[in-house]
Amino acid sequence: MSTKLAPHVVVEYPANAWPEPEPLFGATEPMPYPTDALPSVIGEAVDEVTAFNQAPVSMAACSALSAASLASQGLASVRRAEGLMGPVSLYTLALLDSGERKTSTDEHFIAPIREYEKDVAEKAKPDISEFKAAERAWVAKGKGVEARITKDARDGKPTAQHEKELQDLESSRPTAPRVPRLLHTDSTSEAMAWALSERYPSAGVFSSEAGTVLGGHSMGKESSLRNFAFYNSAWDGRKSASDRRTQDSTRACPVRLTVWLAAQPEAVKAFVDGSRGLAMGTGFMARFLITLPKSTQGTRLFKEAPTGWPKLSAFQNRLRELLETPIAFDDSGDLALDVLDLSPEAKRLWVEFHDSIERELSPSGAMADAREFAAKAADNAARLAAIFHIFANGPTGYIGADSIAAAATIVSWHCMEALRFVGELAVPRPTANALALEAWLLDRCRSGEAVSRRDVQRLGPGVIRDNDALQEALDVLTEANRARAIQDGRRKLVEVNPALLEGNR
């Protein structure tokens, strides 16, 4: 065979120069995302967006479902069975490197949410101005009463009347108008708890960095536990309260929270390792629908933008309709949510899905290695089915069997991704880096040319930019007869086993 090294430079190698490549532990490929299981309005929008921006399909699907979750979660809860009722909110996480176009993909699906926030904020300006004036007056009155109490107490006079005034004043504190702020990117758990309790009880954390949410690796144990506890309780729909010396205490109230994160795989691995078992042990990670998309970088040839987006527009219009559906509150100011039940046939299918997953949690079952994630699968399927129902019909009626079947298909796919995720967590770092390097090399060396070591370090996966990390990864690939470093004069090159290239064409 011949291997191209540079223009006009060809080095000959014997055809038998390479031994048979050995497998690398944990080298698994994702299954195709079941786009056909998505309701047509959602699935067709995903297809239209990915046809243009060529982002990973599973990432785009998670983006669309997260937007639908945020628009739906304040309208209803879902009852799976008697005594089993919860939110329709989703937590999703994509493990991918930068440059996979998550931000631009999100913008297609969340544009109506941004526009809605802007419109309601503009409409609420008079009410906000009135509230701020009333609040300033209330504070001034309170200071006046406190001053009289201080003066009378100093002069030895009774203060009971002024104290009664202060009590009456406290009960007449102005209430801030409810102005939805739905999208958050970098709020801490304490800030989110306050915003959900004191401002608006439905929101979403949409982040391409995920550092604030996945911050356990840099936190102390107490901070990590507090962070996980907040997100766990918000996912469960339980009342959440904050009582911190660094901020005003917040009252406990029902909340609805959607979380959609993207993070580099090595950062998530470092987070899980650094949390000292808390991320998995507390059930925090298990609540997420996880995807590890295969990169599309290197295949995204230029495309002109379409002249219209009919499928995406249909999705966006429906999203706006749901956002404009009034959210109900009870006399205490807490969420008063409708409850969606499963139809008899949907209930039968849901129970079958629940039991089939449960059987796979045994030590010999298919989901034994990812039982934490699988244990939440039936709950997530009910949530997703409720979102499908709301998107199609609004927050009334019974959830049908078609919605449950579609949701179970998608959640099952995420269970398989969870298995891949757990498998990658168990892979030693040099091997994980070798997997990332090999994937990049196979994509780069499709025609058989070698790559300069300098380009590998400059353009390759972020995890091997460090010279020591690159050498460790190369050592793993060399030992497995999958790639090797070669010398061409003064140039240091990396070459891939041709057997792998033949299977990759």
Give an overview in words.
The chain has 505 residues and is of the alpha/beta class. The chain folds into three domains: 2-25 and 429-502, Arc Repressor Mutant, subunit A, CATH 1.10.10; 74-104 and 184-298 and 327-426, no CATH class; 125-171, no CATH class. 50% of the residues lie in helices and 14% in strands. The protein contains 18 helices and 16 strands. The strands form five sheets. It has a five-stranded parallel beta sheet with strand order 6-7-10-5-11, with helices on both faces. Strands 4-3-12-13 form a four-stranded mixed beta sheet. Strand 6 (183-184), helix 6 and strand 7 (202-207) form a beta-alpha-beta unit. Helix 11 runs antiparallel to helix 13 (377-393). The protein is globular, with a radius of gyration of 28 Å.
Strand order of the largest sheet: 6-7-10-5-11
Biggest sheet overview: 5 strands, parallel
* Number of alpha- plus pi-helical segments: 18
Sequence stretches where pLDDT stays below 50 over 5 or more residues: 1-15, 243-247
**Mass-distribution shape:** globular
- Radius of gyration, in angstroms, nearest whole number: 28 Å
| Share of residues in strands | 5-15%
